[in-house]
Amino acid sequence: MLYHLIDYIDTLYDPPGFGMFQFITFRAALAAITALIVSFWFGPKIIKMLRAKQVGELAKYEAPERHLKKAGTPTMGGLIILLAILAPTVLWGDLRNTYVQLIIFVTVWLGAVGFMDDYLKVVKKKPKGLIGRYKIIGQILIGLIIGCIIYFFPHWIDRDLWMLKSSTTVPFFKDLEFDLGFFYIPMVIFIITATSNAVNLTDGLDGLAIGLVGIVGLTLAVIAYISGNSEFSSYLTIPYLRGNGELAVFLAALVGASLGFLWYNAHPAQVFMGDTGSLALGGALGAVCVLIKKELLLPTLGGIFLAEALSVIIQRGYFKYTKKKYGEGKRVFLMAPIHHHFEMQGLPESKIVMRFYIVAIILMILSLATFKVR
User: Fold this and answer.
1) Is residue 360 situated within a structural domain?
2) pTM here?
3) For a disulfide at 301, which of 149, 238, 320, 367, Cβ 3.0-4.6 Å?
4) How far is CA 329 from CA 308, 322, 323, 324, 338, in A?
């Protein structure tokens, strides 16, 4: 809103210095700073409110015993994250931009699904929270909406997008695009649902999920800016998506919100994000990859999230298989998701988190390198 007000004043009176607000990089920096301010200002207030209402984390039986002491720590801290992302985006983003409208829609939608799950779990004291199939329906439905808009109404987003509506770029290969046709919609549904759940599964150690989200978000901010810049996209031979650069403002806010929340979520955590934060953040990252046409880059960039999700799938699948065949279930990992496996091996929580950060940064560098190694 501030951006539109400043743009209006600039159009009428052309005051000196107001032209800076036309630069996406300048507004992205303002969005990140604003997200930090919002986190530091409202974070303690929200944490205090959650404590007063006794909105505490329940003991997790699928986690190592050392996690029992975390029971009672305020959860639903995703409210801090959502506020710190959405407020700067509304203030400094171009709300007329359809890319911005869609990513806000996805974030709010999945934030609401996660909030309902947390509310039923910690306020209404229903151990399972929102029934799993209803959660999946919410994720699939938002994926279906986004997929249909891109496939059937690409001109709503970008008048040039119709040429790429069902295509995706292939990492490491120059000028190679893969057209999925009508199967593009199921792929969008899968990506948004999978990333949403993958970040949710990763949220098991203090500071782990939010730090990784910040690293991935920073990388996507760079890619979104490049995709929306005609000169950079031409130089790197990637599709130019008019207006796509505005997503960098949203992603900068996401990075600022991640750093702000990490202030409270670092070990020992004062608050957990809960499903309110994890489902929204994961879905937003997946949706951004869809909107910038970099869906196939997600397994590399989000390699940690992929490993966390696969560890759970492998563990459950192998347990069911061995139980059916031998009458006794066996495990591949000491505990899943895989960060708990390392905990069971005796590694301190903070060391696991830091090593995962290092791997995520390596994957970030590799992902950015794909744009030059083509």
Assistant:
1) no
2) 0.94
3) 367
4) 21, 5, 4, 8, 18
